[in-house]
Design brief:
306 residues; alpha/beta; Rossmann fold; 2 domains; 7-stranded mixed sheet; 12 helices
Length: 306
């Protein structure tokens, strides 16, 4: 008769152990649990490091440089409890830790908004958007969520003015906390409303150099197949209609009234490139290169929208 399979061994919290050893133990448990990664960490090892670094009050990158530092028994036990809850709940780790990291910058995070992970962040911090971010320029962040992209833009270009808006008041409350956390409560203006309805009527003096947006773009079929981690996020921030283009149509239609003549519109479309081509075959677009390839983010110059 075949022996019964052994149950996975739980990490022990009896004695202090190093960051490296604790990460290895937690990663083993997370990897065996059939979790879905993609909310700020790419795999079980990354999530384990994130849990342990949070326990020690370090950034994940700082923890990597201190792998021999020891956790107390209490810290180890709490890290194990977080990993156990991650496996039980299938919620994104950022919700459990109440913090997310994007391009090395920490943000308050909870279920009032999706976990920040937009590829637009890469373009902001790399300098690729500098032609549309002049000194004293104006940037509009539509569907701002927790405010992460607006804050990254202000960090990258301290001289610009940033306006950020969202239809969700709970998301804006979270964004306000992040603005305060990073000292941008005065520089970044938060507005409540449905896309451009949040703004005053367009006029020549108040046009934007750059409009950025990570809108809801997941098509209906894909929404039905989302892993539990994505289902834990607000559906209003993900669902884009039958082809994922519902809000993107509205944005492209109205954007010309809010852009200056040399401005541009930058939109993340995720895995909906085929649907975008079908919906907007006539619009010349620039496909921006990000870590996921060149089919995730589009830039449309104002002159091509009119």
């Amino acid at each position: 008769m075949d022996p019964e399979p052994l149950a996975p061994q739980q990490p022990s919290a009896a004695n202090p152990i190093s960051i490296e050893a604790c990460c290895q133990q937690l990663a083993t448990q997370l990897a065996m649990a059939n979790l879905h990664f993609g909310h700020g960490a790419i795999d079980a090892q990354s999530e384990a490091l994130w849990i342990v670094s949070k326990e020690l009050g370090l950034s994940p990158s700082a923890a990597l440089e201190q792998m021999h530092t020891e956790l107390t028994s209490a810290q180890q036990a709490h890290a194990l409890a977080i990993a156990t809850e991650r496996i039980r709940s299938r919620k994104p780790l950022a919700y459990l830790l109440e913090e997310a990291w994007l391009m090395g910058v920490p943000f308050d995070c909870n279920e009032q908004s999706i976990v920040p992970r937009s590829f637009i962040a890469e373009l902001i911090t790399s300098g690729d958007l500098e032609p549309w971010l002049p000194a004293d320029g104006k940037v509009l962040d539509l569907c701002t969520g927790n405010g992460s992209l607006a804050i990254l833009a202000a960090l990258a270009c301290p001289d610009i003015r940033v306006t950020a808006c969202d239809i969700s008041m709970p998301a804006l409350a979270l964004a306000a906390r992040n603005l305060k956390r990073h000292g941008f409560s005065e520089q970044i203006e938060l507005l409540h409303g449905d896309l451009f309805d949040a703004l005053p009527d367009p006029n020549e003096e108040e046009r934007f150099n750059l409009i950025i947006c990570n809108p809801p773009y997941v098509n209906d079929a894909s929404m039905q197949a989302l892993p539990a981690e994505y289902q834990a996020e607000p559906a209003i921030a993900l669902a884009g209609g039958s082809d994922g283009m519902n809000l993107i149509r509205r944005i492209i239609d109205a954007a010309p009234d809010y852009l200056n003549e040399r401005g541009a519109l930058l939109i993340e479309i995720g895995n909906e490139a085929e649907h975008f081509h079908l919906a907007f075959p006539q619009i010349p677009v620039i496909w921006m290169e990000v870590s996921a390839g060149n089919q995730q983010v589009i830039l449309i110059q104002a002159e091509d929208l009119r």
